[in-house]
Amino acid sequence: MNDLAFLNSRPVNLSFTGKVAFEVHWYSFSNSPEWSSGNANQACARITAGITHRAFYLLDKGWPVILSEFGVDNRGVNTNDNRYYGCAAAAAADLDLDWALWALQGSYYLREGVLGLDEVYGVLDWAWCRPRNATTLRRVQALQRPLRGPGLTEAAPYTVLFHPVSGMCVVVRRRSPTPTLTQPLELGLGPCNETEAWEYSAQQQRLALRDTALLCLRAEGAGRPATLGVSCGDAMAKWSLVSDSKLHVAVNATSLAGRDGMLCLDVGADGRSVVTNPCRCLSADNSCDPQGQWFKLVSSTRSVVTKQTMLAQLPLKLKNWKIRSF
Q1: Are both 136 and 202 inside the same structural domain?
Q2: Domain assignment of residue 103, given as a range
Q3: Which of 24, 138, 141, 32 has its CA nearest to residue 83?
Q4: Using one digit for the tens of pLDDT, what is the confidence trace for 222-278?
Q5: What's the rounded Cα separation, in Å, for the pair 239 and 242?
Q6: In this predicted model, what pLDDT tens digit does every residue of 74-111 receive, in sequence order?
Q7: Is residue 112 located within the same domain as residue 201?
Q8: DSSP letters of 222-283?
Q9: What is the pTM assigned to this prediction?
C-alpha cells in the first residue's frame, strides 16, 4: 500500500480509539524514472511531496502512520536505490517515523523456484552470519532511536544536524583546552546520540549551539573545515536551505572578495570531518550525486549527552558578553 489519499474523502469513523495505525510502503522502484533520469534534489522534493500527499498527511490529522516497508539493495550497485535512500532517511528522521525494513534475512530456503536465493535487500549476508554491508547497517541504526514523540520529552526541542546517507550527525570534533576567538572549534560526523543541541533561526540564518548562546556555525572557505566561533554577523555565518530538497545547508559567500560563491556543508575526504565546498547538483545536472552534501535539520526532544560544554570552557570574560555581530 502506498496511497492513502482516499481517506480524505472517506474519513475513518470508528467506535473505539487508540487501536488503529496506517501503514505505507516506499521503495525506489515506485518512482524509478525520476530517480534514474531526474536531478536528485528535484526528484527528492517531488517524491517526498507525493508520499506526503498520499500518506504522511495523516500524521497532521492525528493518526499514527508506519513506514512498514522500505529498503535498498545492500550491495550498493543499484543507482536508483542509492539516490533514494538519503531522501527517504531524511524524511523518516524529520517525521520521526516508526518503520520496518525489508529485509533482515540474507537468503531463502526456496523462493521463486530457486534454492538458497540471495536476498540482496537483506541486512544479513547470504549465510546469515554477518552484516551484508556494515555501512548500510550503521545508517539504518541511526533511525532506530526515536528523536521525539508521545512520552518522549526529555528536553526542550532542539535541532539535530543529521547526515542521512551516513546515518551520523554533526558533533564537536575537537575541543581546545582554552577556546578563544582565534581558535575556533571544528566539527565532524559522529553518533547521533552524541550530538550537541543546535538551534536554527531561519530569520537570522543562524545555526548556533543552543546551550551556549554564543558559538555559531561558520564556513571558512572551500575545502576547509566548518567551525564554531563567536564571529556570527558576516556572510560566512548565515545559513539557508538552498536546494529543492531543502537538504543543502549553505552560505552565500559571493559578496566577499576572493571567496567561493555558494558553499554547502559537506563531508571531508576522511569521511568524518565536516567541511564546506561549492554546492553540487542544485539543478539541471541529472547525473550528479548530491548526497554527501545532504544534511537534514531535524527536531529532537531527547536528552543531550552530558559533556563539558563549550560555554564552561570559555574564559569568564567571554561568558559574560552579550551576543553581537563581529
Answers
A1: no
A2: 5-141
A3: 32
A4: 999 999 988 898 999 999 999 999 999 999 998 766 666 899 999 999 999 999 999
A5: 9
A6: 999 999 999 999 999 999 999 999 999 999 999 999 99
A7: no
A8: TTEEPEEES--SSGGG--EE-STTS-BEEEE-TTSTT--SEEEEEE-TTSSBEEEEE---SS
A9: 0.89
